[in-house]
User: Which sequence fits this backbone?
């Protein structure tokens, strides 16, 4: 039988066919946040370092594909996915996203608690998996809708996922847990899809001023809307994560956790390489 070459996955000792864990993307440096404590994976007495699991999750989100496609040399895919689900149940990804947001704001010389927020949605296609989905008649997309809450600099504060059939004006309720983590917010900028009275009531209930930024009907071509372009850039930051180009999760909470994890890893990379982020923004 012909021996399959593991080009790009061989170890540095010169031995062919010895698979090694590929070099992870830079966001794996989030170990500074999670620490390096060794713990036992779910339903196992063996010890697996946090670092290996985080690198595997980062590789999965950056490259894409199913969990079973994780390359050899790292923890088994069941161990990685088991820890992902366990951290999801503990709310680790939401807390990590909040902590990274505060650190990024302090690094920019701003207060850790923002007062201005921007809300927008993004419809993405969904692969054939179990779970709720819908059809967005406006975007002609069968899949799910991501609801983003960012600050004035585009830093991710919270994220939620709903079926694509849900109208934008009805998606704000999904952001209730995320908004509860940021009681300092006093104003929300939204687009013309959030002009309904229920949207105004949602903002009033959370103690925020409701400001809708709409495009002038007389304008033609591409127009940059004040304030709203920031959240579009935040969505664009996640384009490099191949695992997020299509929704692969069977559950909505798992899909939101994948988004939060990728956003947190991107935020850690921005903390480690602030100059690269500034150059890209300019």
Assistant:
């Amino acid at each position: 039988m012909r021996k399959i070459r593991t080009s790009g996955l061989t170890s540095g000792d010169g031995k062919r066919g010895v698979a090694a864990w590929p070099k992870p993307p830079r966001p794996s440096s989030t170990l500074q946040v999670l620490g390096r404590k060794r713990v036992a994976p779910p339903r196992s007495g063996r010890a697996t370092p946090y670092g290996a699991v985080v690198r595997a999750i980062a590789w999965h989100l950056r490259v894409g594909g199913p969990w079973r496609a994780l390359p050899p040399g790292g923890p088994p895919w069941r161990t990685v996915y088991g820890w992902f689900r366990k951290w999801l149940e503990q709310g680790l990804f939401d807390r990590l996203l909040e902590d990274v947001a505060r650190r990024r704001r302090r690094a920019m010389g701003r207060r850790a608690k923002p007062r201005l927020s921007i809300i927008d949605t993004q419809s993405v296609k969904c692969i054939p998996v179990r779970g709720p989905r819908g059809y967005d008649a406006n975007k002609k997309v069968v899949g799910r809708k991501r609801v983003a809450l960012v600050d004035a600099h585009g830093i991710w504060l919270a994220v939620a996922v709903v079926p694509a059939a849900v109208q934008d004006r009805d998606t704000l309720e999904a952001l209730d847990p995320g908004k509860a983590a940021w009681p300092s917010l006093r104003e929300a900028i939204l687009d013309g899809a959030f002009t309904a009275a229920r949207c105004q009531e949602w903002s009033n209930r959370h103690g925020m001023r409701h400001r809708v930024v709409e495009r002038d009907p007389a304008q033609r071509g591409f127009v940059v809307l004040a304030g709203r372009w920031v959240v579009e850039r935040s969505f664009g930051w996640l384009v490099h994560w191949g695992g997020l180009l299509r929704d692969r999760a069977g559950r909505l909470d798992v899909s939101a956790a994948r988004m939060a994890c990728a956003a947190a890893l991107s935020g850690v990379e921005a903390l480690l390489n602030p100059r690269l982020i500034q150059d890209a923004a300019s």
